[in-house]
Amino acid sequence: MTLTDEIGPAGAGGRPPSGNNVIDVHAHVFPLISRAEGRVLADEGEPWLRENGDGTGMMMSGDAEYRPVAAELWDPAARLAAMDRSGVDVQAVSSTPLMFGYEAEPERAADWCELVNDRILAYASHAPQRLLPLCQVPLQDTGLASAAVTKAKAAGHRGVHIGNHVGTRYPDDDAIVEFLAHCAEEGMPVLVHPWDMFGEERMGGRYMLPWLVGMAAETQLSILSMMLGGAFERLPGSLKLCFCHGGGSFAYLLGRADNAWRNRDIVRRDSPKPPSAYTDRFYVDSAVFDPRALRLLVEVMGPERVMLGTDFPFPLGELEPGSTIRACDALSDAECAALLGGNARRFFDLETAR
């Protein structure tokens, strides 16, 4: 069997054969939410979506325009048409990070998350075999966040989407570890996305540097915090955890972290193993945009721990889904198929669901 037989035609043209062959685990949605509904979360700076009536819109933060967007972000029919054009069978749809609401009062954030989760479920209901809904939670309160996961799973959500930190608390924080353990108990995969990047005051608005530099650094910080903070030692092996944006700068700098762990006791104080010993405890997506970078990422993580992720529908994402995977000569046909869909089927347990 050739690669084309397995996953369908390469490139953007044509839809691959049915059977959930190409699965994008990193795709965002912002359902139609009015400004009045956004005030469930906050009285100022509330997130809402302004639709212009011509297939374009604007993500809003109160009165401020945050980002121009197109209909694929809120219109499931437009999204499915785009998936067909680009050969994507399935997307896991998660909220846009602007919607997290971690700075709000916990009770208001819980009500907001319930509204968002209901809208995401309604969005995915237009094609339940192709759109996998991921819930969001009020991560600033462990009890409320855990309750939200339990309720969302019962309602039909297939996983949880969280930001990589809450204020100064990263995923090695005891409360966040407790939440992740609850997700493992519920059998809910967790997708971790960078947001609220540090250093923005130094980078300013120049050249989108917070996205180009800050996102990679935030993701690496999250992963190393879990490794060196002993979080993986405290979490069950059943937890399914995926970091977006290829794990950020983690893979490239893993040798630096291992060297520090070997040579400085302050680095290994809370971690009985070097960072490289924990690469089998999480997944990353493939959003690195360069076959050479993907080759290194697969060498570090293993081909069973990398999944297609595009950051759809934003323009800094992979505009031709799977093109980096298909262009990576270091991958065998079987490994290519695993990255394009096989690993995600296991991550979301789609065979059992089917």
From TrEMBL:
Its EC number is 4.1.1.45. Pathway: Secondary metabolite metabolism; quinolate metabolism. Pfam families: Amidohydro_2 (PF04909). This is 2-amino-3-carboxymuconate-6-semialdehyde decarboxylase. GO terms for molecular function: aminocarboxymuconate-semialdehyde decarboxylase activity; hydrolase activity; metal ion binding. PANTHER family: 2-AMINO-3-CARBOXYLMUCONATE-6-SEMIALDEHYDE DECARBOXYLASE, 2-AMINO-3-CARBOXYMUCONATE-6-SEMIALDEHYDE DECARBOXYLASE. It comes from Actinomadura barringtoniae. It is an enzyme of class 4 (lyase). It comes from the Bacteria. Keywords: Decarboxylase, Lyase, Metal-binding, Zinc.
